[in-house]
Amino acid sequence: MSMFQRVTENDHKAIAAIIGDEERVLFAETIHEEYSHDELSSEHIYPDIVVRVQSSEEVSKVMAYASEHHIAVTPRGAGTGLVGASVAVEHGIMIDMTLMNHILELDEDNLTLTVEPGVLLMEIAAYVEERGFLYPPDPGEKSATIGGNISTNAGGMRAVKYGVTRDYVRGLEVVLADGTILHLGGKVVKNSSGYDLKDMIVGSEGTLAIVTKAILKLMPLPRKRVSLLIPFPTLAQAIGTVPRIIRSKAIPTAIEFMERDVILDSEQYLGRKFPDNQADAYLLLQFDGNTMEEIASYYDETAQICLEQGAIDILIADTEERNEPVWKSRGAFLEAIKSSTSAMDEVDVVVPRNRVHEFVEFAHALPKEIGARIKLFGHAGDGNLHVYVLRDKLSDEEWQKVLDLAMEKMYAKARALDGQVSGEHGIGLAKRSYLKQSLPPEQIALMQRVKKAFDPQGILNPHKVCED
Amino acid sequence: MSMFQRVTENDHKAIAAIIGDEERVLFAETIHEEYSHDELSSEHIYPDIVVRVQSSEEVSKVMAYASEHHIAVTPRGAGTGLVGASVAVEHGIMIDMTLMNHILELDEDNLTLTVEPGVLLMEIAAYVEERGFLYPPDPGEKSATIGGNISTNAGGMRAVKYGVTRDYVRGLEVVLADGTILHLGGKVVKNSSGYDLKDMIVGSEGTLAIVTKAILKLMPLPRKRVSLLIPFPTLAQAIGTVPRIIRSKAIPTAIEFMERDVILDSEQYLGRKFPDNQADAYLLLQFDGNTMEEIASYYDETAQICLEQGAIDILIADTEERNEPVWKSRGAFLEAIKSSTSAMDEVDVVVPRNRVHEFVEFAHALPKEIGARIKLFGHAGDGNLHVYVLRDKLSDEEWQKVLDLAMEKMYAKARALDGQVSGEHGIGLAKRSYLKQSLPPEQIALMQRVKKAFDPQGILNPHKVCED
């Protein structure tokens, strides 16, 4: 029996009155199927009502109503999540943030961009790069909203040099469960003024508060970038080279690894050739800087190290025309793998970067053990791996068995390597049990008390992250 | 009446038995005066007992004992704090962390340094720079412990380019109020595995947990650095130039501002000349990079902008021999000002960097209004100002009145400029009322609920930050 109230026709009327615009309030059968799931989760649950908000004030009023009537609320961005965090497990109210999609201010003195949460990652990139700035976090899924990125503390390709989303969130406007609007942080560079509520909300997957505005930190756009695509005879050699690159004190923006089969999937999916597909494994590196000389001074030594470690060749992409397609292919890996099978699920573990090869070796041996194909790629430079278990022709029952076994084994391995359950995709609904296994009960209990501190009634996105 | 138990002779025996080394347990009259205060606070309160711990296990056992007997606990590092955060308001147990002062591991593959909390900032700098790495946070007080820096989220000079302490804390070992030892984060670069307890503890001034180990993120040490000391006719011109430098997309490591009177204080205090003391105001910039050409490409335009804005000269320090004394003088400002008066108190506000000039103008007009001298300097590049009110010959009563008036006025001004109470020194005991004035009651209440989630009995460093 749920502890939450369902949304009645009366509630529908009351919420419609709050919003004052019928077209932005979807009830019962007018709710589109897409609102019942995210990108990968096998959970399909419909909310009772969807409210397409346009302002913080609307979010505040809806939350106050939900709080008063004890109705569960699930915030949702573009629905590109992979762990079911935006699935309305308790039905109730879904707050669709995608109409709050305005870029509000570029402040060139303070190097900040103020945005609403529904702005897409690719929109931010286009807007700031045109004006000579960089928003460094660069997850593969460019059609995710910035609100979603903040909610999962998304990482992306450039974390090696620039860090993750958290490092670029200067300030947040949030709505608490009871409708209170708070402004946390701001345009200031430093802040030691009481507890860091802002960073607690970053990565909390909509369970502690709803982000309604964000002040992002920008950097000047590096004037040049160069990518190196480096084929290796084996993946072990490719990945084994990464700690040596780091030890040499080069700082690539990105160090990705990939295997031929994923490249072939991507060629087929995009209908265009990758620059090379002859080798078993590749490292893809990017360097940035203000002059080609400066960048060359970084990558010369790196190239030398790769050759010493057995690299077959060094393919240099030093113009935007050559750079762009390589990274576009890389960005399509997830979709490409998805299109090659009937269903899939993933792990998104992160391990210390000098233990990536141990995890990859382990994952390579898994298919035999579990009886299903596995594909993987990932961020070798920051230890974040994306491993996909493919369903192909397995029956429902077989698939569940394979998946349980694969997940259990991979998360156990990650723990053994001092890794964490999720590098950037979050916990949501799908990974809760693995989070619970990976952390001591005292830590889970502390997280549950924090949840209660923010949301005493537990109405915000229930059953996610650390809740049962 | 206090809700806490005082430490009895019986407790003393029990705690001594836990530690098993009499010399590390100080009781009653054996407690040195230094344990009764920090660097600036006017509060002088003795703890009942001081325990000089040597391991996380000892901290855990002492906390379990304190928790069971409801005794207040105050952790203390080097005592260089400026807001009374390490003053044992409720007497009780003081845990002195300074013997936990070992550098445990440099991991060159993962670019991390694992340290105990009692290691001093200058020890970390010396250790890593000798090995070709940089720990970017660079507060002026080099004899602070890293534990203290983590507890206040210290910022320092290089925040313009590199950010603050929080950005370099990858993992923490902490002891909770009940003695539970938790490991938060780790060597991993990305992490989206549940709520971000680690960042909540950073900056919490010993009120949520005691830090017993830290995994710090390092960077490769830039091979070269160049400082520019730039005299201006007026401080307004100097500070007004900063947003223009930022707009030009140069990224100095540091942008400090200073006035002649503080430079003269510093010359007298250190007994050596600053490179120049003829102008009313100065900007001090630093750039770093791997080659002099690369660095010159950054600062050439900056120098041009400064000259256009009326700079009198550009003094370039491009060798370590010239660099070091300038920054040493800068690092001595606080001590130099302190030595020029009988007592002082400070504000450590942070404002958006394009509003620094407004705050400085305001502070310049204050002495007339309040009847006391004021000195200031600060981080123009990140908007963090250190403003000191000097007591000189004021009576106790006059001093309290002047201080109350000065503080009230300056914090009100900071709020009006969208600033925050503390950029890097924290709230502790001394700034609680100003934090309370600057934030909505709902935010203070949320912080209090978070405190309770971490420390249900409230025994950890009571009356600090958000508590009454």
TrEMBL record, chains A, B:
FAD-binding PCMH-type domain span: 43-221
UniProt KW keywords: FAD, Flavoprotein, Oxidoreductase
GO molecular function: FAD binding; oxidoreductase activity
Keyword Zinc found: no
PANTHER family: GLYCOLATE OXIDASE SUBUNIT GLCD (PTHR42934:SF2)
Protein name in UniProt: FAD-binding oxidoreductase
Swiss-Prot/TrEMBL cofactor(s): FAD
Organism: Selenomonas bovis
InterPro entries the record matches: FAD-bd_oxidored_4_C, FAD-bd_PCMH, FAD-bd_PCMH-like_sf, FAD-bd_PCMH_sub2, FAD-linked_Oxase-like_C, FAD-linked_OxidoTrans_Type4, Oxid_FAD_bind_N, Vanillyl_alc_oxidase_C-sub2
